[in-house]
Amino acid sequence: MPENDDSFKQRPDYSEELNAMSALARGDTSAMEIIVKKWQKPLINFFYRSVKSFQTAEDLAQNTFIKLYKAAGTYEPKAAFPTFLFFIARNILINNYRSTSKRKNETNDSELLNNIEDAKNDLSYKELENAFEEAVQELPENQRTAILLLQQQELSYEEISATMNTPIANIKTLIHRARKTLRDKLTIYLQK
Amino acid sequence: MNNKNNIDSLDEILDGFFKKEVPSTDESFTQKVLIAINKEKELINAKNEQINKLFKTFPVEPNKDFTKNVLEKINKQDKNTISFVKKLLPIGLAASLAAIVVSIVIKNNQSEQSPTTSNLTVAANENAIDKTLGANLFELSLESEVSLSELIKASEIITTLETDNLEMFAFNE
To answer: Who's near B173: CB < 8 A, 6+ residues apart?
Structure first.
């Protein structure tokens, strides 16, 4: 996991999303289709790593889109579109933890990703992957969100900082701690 | 050196795990979301219609001093205003108004005591349920122009308001 250097990254173009948000703010619901098609997978992936249930991940993604739709009128394109989207997603995720904290271990779809075609399908690799899933889920919410936004969603530190409303220096600390925890927990699998 | 190689190769593997995607949901999920959004649109329209009707009977102009005016009217035991706030409660938006009003009441109550604000604060403190930062909170911050921190302060009271309605507060209507 190399440290990402934002200055070398070509920033994606979100003009399509901006146009769609403007159209939504004017009441054109059909513009939502563009956003849903483009962002459903990143959102479901983001939620899945936290809740480990595909169904719940889909439900949370749907709620995020609904909130996004409702917030279209207040959206100002000062920050990159994913910053706004994942700000909403994170709030939905936190609310979901609060409402389900007493109902632990609902559905666990850890097999789901493992069933995907996998060239490295040997036992130790599977073990490592399962341990990875567990370890990611066990990270504190802010560490997990920060590292997922960086590694999975490829957001810049600046965007993550805006999404999580946390200074960049703190974001770097969160990511550093998350990486260290993952390494500490998983290094043992490389020695097997 | 060997340890560093181990870490590098572990990092590489973990990076692959992070990038691994759930199976595509594509069209069926898209359609499900769009249907849900259209339903939401209908709900919002119905809610707006209700709010517009209510505002026609509202004794305070909905301008930038709206919340302040509502608060003043409540402090003066204005029956029409109290009745209006109660009518707003069953509608989603109501909680945001109620939360704003209550948070300002509490804030003001720290410097000046009036029978209404005093009763309200005591009732709120006694009945506040530990369901802070519930699903409504974020929605409220989006719907209202109040900062999230302001709403966080009022969040316990929001839950109480939504659960038990305003009757529990001593408005002496």
So the answer is: B77, B79, B82, B83
